[in-house]
Amino acid sequence: MVALLETAEMQTEKQLSSLSGKIECEGPNRHFNTFIGTLYLNGKSPVPIGPDQILLRGTQLKNTQWILGIVVYTGFETKFMQNSIKLPLKRSNVEKVTNVQILVLFLLLLAMSLVSCLGAILWNDWYRKGIWYIRTKDYSSHSLGFDLLVFIILYHNLIPISLLVTLEIVKCVQAMFINWDEDMHCKGNNVYAMARTSNLNEELGQVKYLFSDKTGTLTCNIMTFKKCTIAGIIYGNQSDRSDINLEKLSLSPSVITESCEFNDPKLLQNFENDHPTKDYIKEFLTLLCVCHTVVPERDGKNIIYQASSPDEAALVKGVKKLGFVFTTRTPTSVTVEAMGENFTFEILNVLEFSSNRKRMSVIVRTPTGNLRLYCKGADTVIYERLSEDSRFMKETLTHLEYFAKEGLRTLCVAYADLTEEEYQQWLTQYEKASTVIQDRMRSLEECYDNIEKKFLLLGATAIEDRLQARVPETITTLLKANIRIWVLTGDKRETTINIAYSCKLLSAHMPHIQLNSNSFEATQQAVTQNCEALGTRLGKENDLALIIDGETLKYALHSEIKRSFLNLALSCRAVLCCRLSPLQKAEIVNLVKNHVGAITLAIGDGANDVGMIQMAHVGVGISGNEGVLATNNSDYSIAQFSYLEKLLLVHGAWNHFRVTKCILYCFYKNVVLYIIELWFAFVNGFSGQIIFEHWCISLYNVIFTSLPPFTLGIFEQCCSQKSLLTHPQLYRISQAGNTFNTKVFWFQCLNALIHSFILFWMPMKMLEHDMVLQGGHTTDYLFLGNFIYTYVIVTVCLKAGLETLSWNKFSHLAIWGSILIWLVFLAIYSFVWPTIPIAPEMRGQVNMVLVCPHFWLGFFIVPIVCLILNLIWKLIINTCNRTLLEEIRELESSRAQGLYPPKMFKRRVEATKLRMSVASTLQKIVFPNESFDQSIPHGYAFSQVEQAVITQEELVRSYNTTKSKSSKISMDSSDSR
Ligand SMILES: [Mg+2]
């Protein structure tokens, strides 16, 4: 961002208010990198405005405290908002399946009604003569329609309307459980997890693809100078401090203090006690103080370092703690206070960083008047420029490899002494190169290359891009749970790969496919080539990583190769996409969502993640330092990435079990009761007679069987939280959705049909020959109805007990309580009429039913006959097809009973685990391909800004920190920060 010359002079509010003119610019669009406009100032010639003069919404100021600006786009017209997508309505997969089944059930209801109508016609036809005492019907189309309506009303309860109400309440409570979870409570800033919607609770148990942002989500965006190697000696390598770190890491990232930074007294001891490497240490620390583009700003006694590269800031801060303080920058020099003494280095040239060069150098005149070139950069480029006299090469290389394995970002540092003659010669070359008009960058780089040689190696630095607490552990667990993790970031390729290593998403032996092309043809060729190389392994999960950048992705998402690109990506265990725009993040999520029938989850913290959070089936926002936009657009918000483990593996799995059980049970109990009306139709001549009393039917779902679905939906657990977290493989059960699909649903309905058949015909046959009760009463249809109704309630409640895996006091209350409530209700209801004018036909029923020995005989026999079938079925399944869940439940119960779990159990659990994860044990594939990379990277990363509006040289030359900066102007609405 650079000000126009015409307006650069304006530094106060007063000057700004005197400004008059207009800006003409292009209409609002979503292209971040372009802007075309013209500034017309009164009395001056028009000036073009480009992207360099534009600050996008949400950007942060660096290197300056304030700026003055004019707002061009507001609200929905900002480029940022133009990148947002329409908010889709999110419904869970379970809900979608359920809705389809309800529709099918409705069609079934119509079919049943039609069959009953037909039955009525046939019955009337057959018995017309025998039933002269009943007025026979004349079947016209009118009465047929009427009959149809009667049967629809008779059977309409098949559609469980109460289910929707039950589910709403259940999900609401589930959401509360998430909100209250102390394990997902970030104590540092007192943030609890929050379920912003309750619609998707069960979806959390089915996630297959996880799309994660990097900065702020996986990392804290804090760089720390961690370790270094100087003259072949490694410093900062105390592993005994890890216990302190662990304690700290459980706190919020912002709470972690500087004590995690470089802190090795050995370095200073060696320096002070005249160790043989003393001079190297001094040179090393001096280099880090001099060779960079950081600007120091004094704030009272403190020095604040402003840097566009957080890596450089970390290094300068790190050496400051060691007594080498970078204090002043003027356009031509830097001053370093080393151990209390001031040294001024004249900056002669800055040889800039670019990702091509992978290094930056400065040429300085040291306080003693010598010419010296300081350089820091990637190990590969430094090593090939080392002089033959250079020492410690082997040791440093070993250390570099060690740093890389730890996931640290490394830079090699080296210097070269120049002679006056050499320098002057080079300077003329340089001046020539810097005036070249065409391809200046390239000629400059060539020129830089001429002087960057014969380096003497000093050592290397290792910077940690600090991960959020427990990120590697969480990723390992999620991978075990068969969740594929894709990292989508706006950051650079090197830093992304580096983070993927440190958070254990990539491992050292994992080969990666790099896609990096700048044309459609090249991308197409690379994609096809890699697909062919994979051969039969395409589409299967391989131990591979795919790395692609935003530019290549633009071509890869072209409709022609979209499909093959996706196949390639799906064949890899980890996918890293770097340099993506917010819209591209959303596009990738959308691609997977549309082409793979799996549940996706996107997690991010910043405004640039909003698109993908909204696009994914489940969006999770991290309430971090980057504002609330991500959390406001998410479905669930958590404070740290690691809480995802509990949210998915525990809450997700539990909720999925709970919701699906609740749904299946609700359908079951409705079918059981209301199909009985169909059976009854066979004995009442399809007359539409109801076997139960009206209010009893209505109160069935409202009172008598309302409690078991709630206990199933709220308290049911497949196994304990501890087991779910220690055996992430259990997540696959809910992920695969085998506990709830069309097949399971209709199996449950068939089960209900059989139950209803037994529940009707057994009592029916029992009372076939009628009986005379005390007082000369004869039995009637309602007598039979009350028998059946009672048996239905007992069976249905006990079925809930059979479904319950974890009994608690609520399940007991719900199951036994419901049966009791019905019996008490029956007793009271039989005496209501005529005091209250309802249900005259129920008068005295309790005296007839409850005293009848046949009733009590059936009370025990009928439900047992129904449920014994289920019990046997369960027995067979659990014996023949034992799942990991069963093993673990058995282990848990033996523990709960205080028994020491026999070794055999554990062995069986391990064996089942192995069987389940057999898909993820992969054979190594080796195939030659140019985009195929199998080397272990040395973790090189350099977060320097490239191709910035102003060059690094200009940046360095434009500061003079000895002069006091113009005092802060009063900030008000004119400030556009
Ligand atoms: Mg972010």
TrEMBL record:
What is the membrane topology listed in the Swiss-Prot or TrEMBL record? Multi-pass membrane protein
Q: Which residues cross the membrane?
A: 100-123, 144-167, 671-692, 744-762, 782-801, 813-833, 853-873
Catalyses which reaction? ATP + H2O + phospholipidSide 1 = ADP + phosphate + phospholipidSide 2; a 1,2-diacyl-sn-glycero-3-phospho-L-serine(out) + ATP + H2O = a 1,2-diacyl-sn-glycero-3-phospho-L-serine(in) + ADP + phosphate + H(+)
Single GO cellular component annotation? trans-Golgi network
- Detail which positions bind Mg(2+): 213, 215, 605, 609
**Which BP terms does GO give this entry?**
neuron development; phospholipid translocation
Family annotation (SUPFAM superfamilies):
Calcium ATPase, transmembrane domain M, HAD-like, Metal cation-transporting ATPase, ATP-binding domain N
The residues that hold ATP are 213-215, 312, 353, 376, 409, 489-491, 579, 585, 608-609
**EC class:** translocase
Q: Which InterPro entries match?
A: ATPase_P-typ_cyto_dom_N, ATPase_P-typ_P_site, ATPase_P-typ_TM_dom_sf, HAD-like_sf, HAD_sf, P-type_ATPase_IV, P_typ_ATPase, P_typ_ATPase_c
The cofactor required is: Mg(2+)
Tell me the keywords, alphabetical order.
Answer: ATP-binding, Golgi apparatus, Magnesium, Membrane, Metal-binding, Nucleotide-binding, Translocase, Transmembrane, Transmembrane helix
| Annotated ranges, domain P-type ATPase C-terminal | 632-880
Q: Which residues form the active site?
A: 213 (4-aspartylphosphate intermediate)
One MF term in the entry's GO annotations: magnesium ion binding
List its EC numbers: 7.6.2.1
Where does this one sit in the cell? Answer: Endomembrane system; Golgi apparatus; Membrane
Q: Could you tell me which PANTHER family the record lists for this protein?
A: PHOSPHOLIPID-TRANSPORTING ATPASE (PTHR24092:SF59), PROBABLE PHOSPHOLIPID-TRANSPORTING ATPASE (PTHR24092)
Q: Which NCBIfam families match?
A: ATPase-Plipid, ATPase_P-type
Q: Family membership, please give it.
A: Belongs to the cation transport ATPase (P-type) (TC 3.A.3) family. Type IV subfamily.
Q: What is this protein called?
A: Phospholipid-transporting ATPase
User: What species is given as this protein's source?
Assistant: Zalophus californianus (California sealion)
